[in-house]
Amino acid sequence: MAKRCFRLKKNKEIEKVFKCGKRAFSQTITLVYFPAKETQYAVCVGKKYGKSVERNRIKRLLREAFAEYGHQIKPCRALLIPKIAKEYEFSLFKRDLKKIIEKEKLLCEG
Predict the structure, then answer these.
(1) Do the beta carbons of residue 67 and residue 93 sit within 8 Å?
(2) CATH number of the domain that residue 41 is part of
(3) 40-43 vs 76-82, strand pairing mode
(4) Using one digit for the tens of pLDDT, what is the confidence trace for 30-83?
(5) Which of 18, 21, 15 is nearest to 36 (CA)?
(6) In a domain, 8, yes or no
(7) Which 3-state string (H, E, C) describes the chain?
(8) How confident is the prediction for the chain on average, in pLDDT?
(9) Side by side, which strands form the sheet with 40-43?
(10) CA dist., res. 17 & res. 51, Å (int)
(11) For residue 35, which of 106, 94, 83, 99 has the smallest C-alpha distance?
(12) Distance between CA atoms of 76 and 71, rounded to whole angstroms?
């Protein structure tokens, strides 16, 4: 699991990423990011995704998927936004996050 210190928490910072960041899309995730000194991220899951139990599960799955690749990507601030679906699976989030990271050339060399 990614350390808590790597999470974006302040609303002002999240809004800045949302307004100024570059967007990358996949089947299950939208990633909004822009370069920074260190990697930080936030997960945005609104009420339209279901009741709190379902939203919290989506957040856990996205955090875990990001933790798999978080140490390999170039320093940036990122927002992870899931797309609405009937079922959410860790394997799909992990696969799509990897595709986005490779497509946007966010992997660190070496």
Answers:
(1) no
(2) 3.30.230.10
(3) parallel
(4) 999 999 999 999 999 999 999 999 999 999 999 999 998 888 899 999 999 999
(5) 21
(6) yes
(7) CCCHHHECCCHHHHHHHHHHCEEEECCCEEEEEEECCCCEEEECCCHHHCCHHHHHHHHHHHHHHHHHHCCCECCEEEEEEECCCCCCCHHHHHHHHHHHHHHCCCECCC
(8) 91
(9) 22-25, 29-35, 76-82, 40-43
(10) 26
(11) 106
(12) 11
Q: Is there a domain that residue 109 lies in?
A: no
Query: Rounded to whole angstroms, how far apart are CA atoms 13 and 16?
Result: 5
Residue bearing tokens 């260190």: 38
| Number of domains present in the structure of the chain | 1
What pLDDT does 71 receive?
83
Range of the domain at 56: 4-103
Residue 110 lies in a domain: no
Residues 22 and 77: their CA atoms lie apart, in Å, by: 10
User: What's the pTM?
Assistant: 0.89
* Contact (Cβ atoms closer than 8 angstroms) between residue 73 and residue 109: no
Evaluate whether 2 touches 70 at the Cβ level (below 8 Å): yes
Residue 41 in domain: yes
